[in-house]
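To whoever picks this up:

The nightly regression suite flagged Flavin reductase like domain-containing protein as changed. Nothing in the input moved, so I suspect the structure step. Input below, exactly as stored in the fixture:
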Amino acid sequence: MSHFRPVKLEHASRLINHGPTVLVTSAHGARRNVMAAAWSMPVEFTPPRIAVVIDKRTYTRELAAASGTFGIVVPGAAMIDLTYAVGSTSGREIDKFEAFGIDIVEGPVLGLPLIETNCAAWLECRLIDEKHTEDAYDTCFAEVVAAAADSRVFVDGHWIIDESNQPLHTIHHLGAGKFVRASSMEQAKPLAR
Ligand SMILES: Cc1cc2nc3c(=O)[nH]c(=O)nc-3n(C[C@H](O)[C@H](O)[C@H](O)COP(=O)(O)O)c2cc1C
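Regenerated output under the current build:
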């Protein structure tokens, strides 16, 4: 049974606000793919817009450019090995979904391949035509058209990170296959002045 529930578009930025390493999914015709990306961020609340660096040499970039769409999946800590694996291989050589046994769910708006098992959230995105930033900086801007999150870790527009949902804690790449997990939350308190 899926624990994923729709996330209001005005809350979509919160899914990647804290800089998790994400998976970028893509498809064009019968071709489909998934890669890892450490460099993504929200850039606008409403309409929800994001930016992600997708190197022009990747198969992902080819499919995203061809379809005008891509998916962002926020993997949980249970996906560390898999995240590194899809970030170290190219879809030009293998179908990573098949090779690594990744279950796909179909995005409701764009029909993109998305992942829910061991993942905290996903966003379906429509590419915004920004040729200059794509060519010069490999930075792709996109509008989020649908989003959902696992209700065990994201409820009513807010993350809940605690001991009960460790496999869904987001992961953050330090480099060379080392990750840290977002494992505890702390509420900022007003300082006395
Ligand atoms: C943890 C991790 C983070 C990565 N972050 C990015 C990124 O932000 N942008 C990027 O273009 N490539 C990034 N990469 C590299 C791509 O995932 C890698 O080039 C991948 O093989 C491309 O796959 P594809 O050719 O199937 O699209 C990252 C790799 C890893 C392992």
